[in-house]
Design a protein that fits this description.
Strand order of the largest sheet: 2-1-3-4-5
Shape: globular
Helix content: 40-55%
CATH topology: Rossmann fold
CATH superfamily: Response regulator
Order of helices and strands: EHEHEHEHEH
Radius of gyration: 13 Å
Length: 124
């Protein structure tokens, strides 16, 4: 079995396009899309249930009381040791500062797929 990559994005269209694009590039890897739901802790548990090696996290979740930063913090609190990449349309500096202790591998602005792919190649 290959490396497991979990993408957490609330936008199904964007998330599915990302899955297709990454599957074309990383055909031997398992790439799954999860929608955030419930709470940051609940979403983190959904991610952990998939036993990922790498998590690609969106930052903003429409209509939810938490964001990707909260899920990243919950993942680390639950002991997740894998790589996390924050892949979002806008990543404020204060969010990067608040996530310093979470050891995020990279902060990549959407839709820069080339940078995301290169970062994944390094992580793999």
């Amino acid at each position: 079995m290959g490396i497991r990559i979990v993408i957490v994005d609330d936008d199904s269209f964007v998330g599915n396009a990302l899955v297709r694009n990454l599957r074309d590039e990383f055909s031997s890897e398992v790439i799954l899309l999860l929608k955030p739901e419930g709470s940051a802790k609940h979403t983190a548990k959904l991610v952990l249930n998939e036993n990922p090696d790498i998590v690609i996290m969106d930052l903003s979740f429409s209509g939810l009381s938490f964001d990707g930063g909260h899920v990243i913090q919950a993942l680390r609190e639950e002991g997740f040791k894998g790589n996390i990449i924050l892949f979002s349309g806008f990543i404020p500096e204060d969010k990067k500062t608040s996530l310093e202790a979470c050891e995020v591998l990279a902060y990549i602005q959407k839709p820069n797929l080339d940078v995301l792919k290169e970062t994944l190649k390094i992580a793999l």
